From TrEMBL, chain A:
It comes from Xaviernesmea oryzae. This is Multiple sugar transport system substrate-binding protein. The keyword Nucleus does not apply. Belongs to the bacterial solute-binding protein 1 family. Keywords: Periplasm, Signal, Sugar transport, Transport. One of its GO terms (cellular component) is periplasmic space. It is found in: Periplasm. The lineage of its organism: Bacteria, Pseudomonadati, Pseudomonadota, Alphaproteobacteria, Hyphomicrobiales.
UniProtKB/TrEMBL annotation, chain B:
The keyword NAD does not apply. It is found in: Cell membrane. It comes from Xaviernesmea oryzae. Belongs to the binding-protein-dependent transport system permease family. CDD domains: TM_PBP2. Residues 72-265 form the ABC transmembrane type-1 domain. One of its GO terms (cellular component) is plasma membrane. It is a multi-pass membrane protein. One of its GO terms (biological process) is transmembrane transport. Gene3D superfamilies: MetI-like (1.10.3720.10). This is Multiple sugar transport system permease protein.
TrEMBL record, chain C:
This is Multiple sugar transport system permease protein. Gene3D superfamilies: MetI-like. InterPro entries: ABC_transporter_permease, MetI-like, MetI-like_sf. Keywords: Cell membrane, Membrane, Sugar transport, Transmembrane, Transmembrane helix, Transport. It comes from Xaviernesmea oryzae. It holds the Pfam family BPD_transp_1. The lineage of its organism: Bacteria, Pseudomonadati, Pseudomonadota, Alphaproteobacteria, Hyphomicrobiales. It comes from the Bacteria. It is a multi-pass membrane protein. PANTHER family: ABC TRANSPORTER PERMEASE PROTEIN, DIACETYLCHITOBIOSE UPTAKE SYSTEM PERMEASE PROTEIN NGCF. It is found in: Cell membrane. GO terms for biological process: transmembrane transport. One of its GO terms (cellular component) is plasma membrane. The keyword Transport applies. Belongs to the binding-protein-dependent transport system permease family.
Length: 427, 280, 310
């Protein structure tokens, strides 16, 4: 959009027209359609992200000169809350980013406009390319209600300097020796933790966002509720074993910083952290440390991967839902998906190859891309979610507080939590 | 208790006050000093009282990442308008409740006092809907109109009423004999006497508006309309992780000017309060 | 509370038989209070009525359904197993806050009322947190109260191993109270200081001649004379304590368990996080009733407690 040029030509027109007294109001630009303003709520306020989004909006405007798209950054922490407040007030955005945990709420409620038809109709869109597993959470009865534009695997970032200083084995060495499993990983973390630095940090978990622990307990085959979401499975053996393992790592082995301890991996204060690969951008540019990126360790139940997702949905309530759906189709077409994938890994098969990914993730090696990114997206389970997740999350969070103390009764606490969330799961 | 104190007593009192000061001063000190620490030093344990190395670029980033000057202006002009408006509304209402006899005055006063009792969380959803219907969402109007006329101004009205009640009636009598109407009596006689009470109302109101948090979050959505407390929470990386040192630098910039104004004006403030009806 | 004063002179000039002084005054009175009254109606009473209306509905924001359910939300209120714990936390929080706030404010006011050089510097410093942004203040305390944060760092200097402040039920409650008190005690302190300075000096002199010790002077003279201020500050502080929200959200998010989930935070969770706007509105009504009853009770008690009212 060349704003200055437009302004200049407008000024020129004015200069000619004004003396002649022929300046008719509202007759300036021939415009058959009414102007349409679309608003998309997002949780990123990152400049680079916004620049790209605005470029995409400008691209859309070329074919749809009457459509203007604006992005509204809401704070990450309170994003879903702020979004639903807008909806409650009757001020729903036309499009919104949706967290994977909240996906069921939005998809099942009927708040979203069905996208499948619009996406299929878009030229060169090739919706079939989207992997079915990636689309699962965002679909109901075979219809896609939000497009999963970001499918980001969890992986382990490693600070080799810290680990070597503690005299422990690095993950790379363990992988080479075929010993990359949770027992060895915690052994390394524990060795570092004993020196006063942080061992392993599950990023953003912070004893509140417990669903991020799926990055560990999936290795035990544990899950908080059954596949159909109706039954609490936290009392079953895999979950009890996994949480006992995590508990020991925190309180006996000092391998994971305890509750209320602030340690930042990216500031160089910890051995390892589990987070999404896109956080590579947080690695320090000056005073860097020797870092590595490895897949999650093997658990008792074998190898596994975890992914986080984010979707774009069109609000049913908006006046211009159809146009908004067209914009989503444009934003996530193969060409723009490729651009987006530099920040948000795409679940399109054509973009899931080493060549493309190498370009968009310059920090990662070929090997890391193969083992962490590609196989992670292909095999990963999505972070747990459920209808009414906010309430379930909160209930489990306050219940788990009883686990995060040295003398915890883990099976008893899990029993109690299941009793509390049981009725919510059945809703 | 105004007797001369013994030297030993003085030392004891100074010592006691210095100890008590720690939790009041240390957080602010830590906020200011940490704003120039590199991020890894913020988490250092034990905490550094004085930065080991300085990183002044945080202050530059405060202005780069957000339209901070604009946000500063938003907060400042909203707080100024709200303060002025509240002074007008509450001094008039307070005067009427204290000095004018009119039907249902007591009942109306009780209804107005209801405003003191209602947390803003309670009414935020209906207010949001009302302002949406009026086309005022994502404008500053809700942040200006509600404090001036709604619940937050009730405390100011209460303070003003308590003050005007103490005015001697003879002054008004004399003015009446001179032929002054109600409004003139209010403006020429009562209001000038009420300066101390007005001063404390002004300070309370300004601080309330300056620190408002929930309402801006609910009503405003574009960065150039944000107010400062809201802007503080926006210094995050792309994944919502707070950029601590930049947040602290921004927080320092929001706190210091008010602190300086208070230091200059605190004598008037304390003495102003001493002359209001609040003293009992 | 008597609002009007006996100050209307009957012999005021009446320009016409209808516009008597009393009528003119009535009109003036209504005009004077009009902005405030209209504001209260529009921004308080109507929204409050709407909240009550919502509380009779089940409102699913996402599905955009709004169904009349009568008293169902109120039945839910009675059956809510969390509510008792929440109300308990609210009571502990408010009581702790008021007691700590008022006693600290009074102590500081008495200290600042002494004839000491440089007392204005102390006054300024004690007041300074009031002008620091609440969010910034809470974030900073959040840092300091971490297990490996500043408070425990200082305690370590004295060889004490500090508790995990925000993660133990008791210390978490103490922490949110203390953080809130240090932030705002300056306001009450100034109000008390003003009240203390209004106590006539002669009374103390008389007491001193009678040989009354300092503490007795304080109990017998100071406290009764400043009792109206104590009443006022306690009402403001209690009402304020029931509205504390940002501090809880930043420091503990209501945990551990439900130990710091006060009513206003619970209301916020139900309405804004869980999207139960109908039930959230019901909790709003409950909160309003609690505040109103408490204020009324305090107001009634004033006759017994307050020794003197101007």
């Amino acid at each position: 959009m060349n704003y200055h040029k437009a302004l200049k030509s407008a000024a020129a027109v004015l200069a000619i027209a004004a003396p002649l007294g022929i300046l008719a109001v509202g007759n300036g630009v021939a415009q058959a359609q009414d102007a349409v303003n679309l608003r998309m709520t997002i949780w990123s306020a990152n400049e680079a992200h916004l620049k790209l989004f605005n470029e995409i909006a400008a691209g859309f405007k070329k074919d749809h000169p009457n459509v203007t798209v604006t992005y509204e950054s809401l704070p990450f922490d309170t994003y879903t809350t702020a979004l639903t407040t807008q909806i409650a007030g009757g001020n729903a955005p036309d499009m919104a980013w949706i967290f994977e945990t909240a996906a069921y709420d939005f998809v099942n409620s009927g708040a979203l406009y069905p996208l499948t038809d619009t996406l299929k109709a878009a030229q060169g869109y090739n919706l079939d390319e989207l992997s079915a597993t990636a689309a699962e959470r965002w679909s109901k009865d075979g219809t896609l209600y939000a497009y999963p534009f970001s499918t980001s695997p969890f992986a382990m970032f490693v600070n080799n300097d810290v680990i070597k200083a503690a005299g422990a084995k690095t993950p790379a060495e363990l992988i080479a020796a075929g010993q990359w499993d949770w027992d060895h990983a915690i052994e390394t973390a524990s060795a570092v933790g004993q020196t006063g630095k942080g061992g392993l940090i599950v990023r953003d978990f912070n004893y509140q966002i417990w669903q991020n622990l799926a990055s560990i307990w999936n290795g035990w085959g544990a899950s908080p509720w059954s596949a159909d979401g109706k039954t609490c499975t936290m009392t079953e053996k895999p979950m009890v074993d996994a949480l006992t393992f995590i508990h020991d790592a925190i309180f006996k082995k000092k391998a994971i910083p305890g509750p209320g301890e602030n340690v930042d991996f990216f500031a160089g204060n910890a051995a390892m952290t589990i987070t999404q690969i896109s956080r590579a951008s947080l690695l320090p540019k000056d005073k860097p440390f020797a870092w590595d990126l490895v897949p999650l360790p093997r658990g008792p139940a074998g190898e596994y991967a975890l992914i986080g997702q984010a979707g774009i949905g069109v609000m049913q309530a908006g006046k211009n839902a159809e146009t908004a759906a067209e914009f989503v189709a444009y934003m996530t077409n193969p060409e723009n998906s490729a651009k987006l994938s530099q920040f948000f890994p795409s679940a399109r098969k054509s973009l899931l190859n080493a060549e493309v990914l190498k370009k968009t993730n310059p920090l990662l090696s070929q090997d890391q891309i193969d083992k962490v990114v590609i196989s992670g997206i292909a095999t990963g389970k999505v972070i747990p979610g459920h209808t009414g997740f906010a309430q379930i999350q909160q209930t489990v969070r306050s219940g788990l507080d009883a686990v995060w103390r040295p003398d915890a009764d883990i099976p008893g606490t899990l029993q109690k939590i299941c009793g509390q969330i049981g009725p919510f799961l059945k809703r | 208790m105004k007797a001369e104190l013994s030297p030993r007593m003085k030392v004891f009192l100074y010592g006691l006050m210095c100890v008590l000061l720690v939790p009041f001063v240390f957080p602010t000190w830590w906020m200011v000093t940490s704003s120039v620490k590199p991020i890894s030093d913020i988490f250092a344990f034990p905490p550094q009282l004085v930065p080991q190395s300085y990183d002044w670029t945080t202050y530059q980033k405060v202005f780069e990442l957000q339209p901070f000057v604009q946000q500063y202006w938003n907060s400042a002009y909203i707080a100024a308008l709200v303060t002025l408006g509240t002074m007008v509304v509450s001094s008039m209402a307070g005067y009427a409740f204290a000095r004018i006899r009119f039907p249902f005055a007591n009942t109306i006063f009780m209804i107005v006092l209801l405003g003191l009792l209602i947390p803003s969380e309670v009414t935020i959803v209906p207010l949001f809907q009302m302002f949406l219907k009026a086309g005022m969402v994502n404008t500053h109007w809700p942040l200006i109109l509600v404090p001036i006329f709604g619940a937050p101004s009730v405390f100011a009205t209460f303070v003003m009423r308590q003050f005007f009640v103490t005015l001697p009636g003879e002054l008004e009598e004399a003015a009446r004999v001179d032929g002054l109407g109600r409004f003139k009596i209010f403006r020429k006689i009562a209001l000038p006497l009420a300066r101390p009470a007005l001063a404390s109302v002004a300070i309370f109101t300004f601080l309330h508006s300056w620190n408002l948090f929930l309402e801006p979050i609910v009503f405003l959505s574009s960065a150039d309309k944000f107010t400062l407390p809201q802007a503080l929470t926006q210094y995050t990386d792309a994944y919502g992780g707070p950029m601590w040192n930049i947040q602290l630098a921004a927080a320092t910039l929001t706190a210091l000017p008010v602190l300086i104004v208070f230091i200059i004006a605190q004598k008037q403030f304390v003495e102003g309060l001493a002359h209001t009806g609040l003293k009992g | 509370m008597a609002v009007a004063q006996e100050n209307v002179a009957p012999e005021g000039r009446a320009s016409s038989p209808f516009w008597t002084v009393a009528r003119r005054d009535s009109l003036a009175g209504f005009l004077f209070i009009a902005p405030q009254l209209i504001g209260i109606i529009v921004f308080v009473l109507i929204p409050l009525g709407l909240v009550f209306w919502y509380s009779l509905h089940e409102w699913n924001v996402l599905a955009n359904t709004f169904t009349y359910t009568g008293a169902q939300n109120y039945r839910m209120l009675i059956e809510d197993t969390n509510l008792l714990e929440v109300l308990g936390a609210t009571a502990i929080f408010s009581a702790g806050l008021v007691v700590f706030n008022l006693s600290l404010a009074l102590l500081l006011a008495v200290l600042l009322n002494q004839k000491l050089a440089g007392i204005t510097i102390f006054r300024t410093l004690f007041f300074s947190p009031v002008v620091v942004s609440l969010v910034a203040w809470t974030i900073v305390w959040g840092f300091l109260l971490q297990k490996n944060g500043g408070i425990n760092g200082m305690l370590q200097v004295f060889g004490i191993e500090g508790p995990n402040w925000l993660r133990e039920e008791t210390t978490a409650m103490i922490s949110v109270i203390v953080v809130q008190v240090f932030k705002n005690v300056g306001l009450n302190m100034i109000l008390f200081l003003a009240a203390l300075q209004g106590v006539p000096n002669e009374l103390y002199e008389a007491a001193r001649i009678d040989g009354a010790p300092r503490f007795k002077q304080f109990r017998r003279i100071t406290l009764p004379l400043i009792s109206p201020t104590i009443l006022l500050t306690s009402i403001i502080t209690i009402v304020g304590s029931l509205q504390v929200f940002a501090q809880i959200a930043v420091l503990t998010q209501g945990g551990p368990g439900l130990s710091t989930t006060v009513l206003v935070y619970y209301l916020y969770q139900q309405a804004f996080q869980f999207h139960f706007f109908g039930y959230g509105s019901t909790l709003s009504i409950l909160l309003f009733v609690i505040v109103a009853v408490l204020t009324f009770a305090q107001w009634q008690m004033r006759k017994r407690i307050v020794f003197y009212e101007s």
